[in-house]
Amino acid sequence: MLAAETSVEYYLILGLVILALCSLNLVALTLARRFMPGRPLSVAKLTDAERPRVLVQLPLFNEGELIERILEAVTALDWPRDRLEIQVLDDSTDGSLAVSRRAVAALKQQGVNVELLHRVQRTDFKAGALAAGLERSEAPFVAIFDADFIPPPDFLRRTVGALVANPELAYVQTRWGHLNRDESLLTRIQARLLDSHFGVEQEARWRLGLPLPFNGTCGLWRRAAIDEAGGWDGDTLTEDLDLSLRANLAGWRSGFMGDLVVPGSLPTSAHAWRVQQFRWTKGFVQCFIKLTPPVWRSRRLPVWKKLMIGFQIGQPLAFVVGVACLIMGLPFMAGAVVGGAGLSVVASVTSVLGFAAPIMFLTMAGRNEGIRRTAIEILGALVLTSGLLLSNARGGLEALLGHRTEFVRTPKARDRKTARTPLWRSGVLELGAGLALLTFALIEQPVAVLYLAMLIGGLVGIGAMQVIDGLALARPASIRN
């Protein structure tokens, strides 16, 4: 029995050390963003005669009214029409396809070079749609936009100019903006998290010369880099991260334009956000499994870059490790097992880093919005991200076990009118786990509630928001309206 308890303690310490290293990775990126000098990206100024042919791909799936909005923005791009191709890659299974057909027909009558591609079989999902579109074009540059975003008119002038001026770049990624940032506290929290990703993490990686993950939209690719990297592959749920790292391994570099902002819409419900985060988490872990061996075999990359890439694509495994540590820590919280001094030290260091690192990371991304608003957004981000622990851990575990699932797009706001999600899948698990953990702590070790408050609050909060959304959707339409 003593040997088993010792083994659990060792594994718990190992898990806490892994979590501490993940926090240190955030600290390193934050410090790099703060102290590393800015890195300018040269942009060539092209005359109309010098502007190359560009393909704009719009991968769509059941996007409804967003279709006309994105097409309006794309057709307003400041680029010669005779050198602009637009592909509407619509794999929709609802009435959205009819909207695409009408919109494309109307644009063709106006002389726009636009094509609609519809696949009955969604092989490889978004990656398959993008690959199918590339087979029908020879344009040397490819821009990609999801339906949620509205590219500014100068997008192509600036991004194409960057790739022309820097022939070693495979692609350039721009920064996401947020059309509905102030719609709710949830959207404000998401905006804060994404601003941290683009304004701190992406900017730090750019300044350090590290590979930048392509974010799936609002970027411009060099066609030659896509082909040399092996093309789009649908064997992970984050085909964008996969291709961008394979391009880097093939010798290409990546660019970041943090001053070019493309506004988009944020998920408006906790369920939609959880779906999105689950897909991203599982996809990152799939890329970790797929790409870690070639990264470490690469002779192009120094060891420190290999380590940083490993933390980049393996960071979501922290959710799996976190659940494991929580389960192993329950006997210690209950007093059934007494840990040694080493466990206490490691637990204390991990807890401090676990709070300090994300607070530093999230604070640096903020705008001048006042201390109170900033504090609410940061605290909300910490709490609600903790509430994704179970869902994201399941995503990571499924990836580790090789369990394949289809690409589930992030539900849009309009889906709330018709979506029907079973109650047991709408937050009951998180809500039950949060309340059970609270009950356990109050019975066995009341002081532990202080340490578990963020996790308990996150699970209960995410669970309650999903349950409320599910109940609202279950009501008759006459009552909802």
From TrEMBL:
The keyword Signal does not apply. Gene3D superfamilies: Spore Coat Polysaccharide Biosynthesis Protein SpsA, Chain A (3.90.550.10). The chain crosses the membrane at residues 12-32, 307-330, 336-363, 423-443, 449-474. It is found in: Endomembrane system. InterPro entries: Nucleotide-diphossugar_trans. Keywords: Membrane, Transferase, Transmembrane, Transmembrane helix. SUPFAM superfamilies: Nucleotide-diphospho-sugar transferases. It comes from the Bacteria. PANTHER family: GLUCOMANNAN 4-BETA-MANNOSYLTRANSFERASE 9 (PTHR32044), XYLOGLUCAN GLYCOSYLTRANSFERASE 2-RELATED (PTHR32044:SF80). This is Glucosyltransferase.
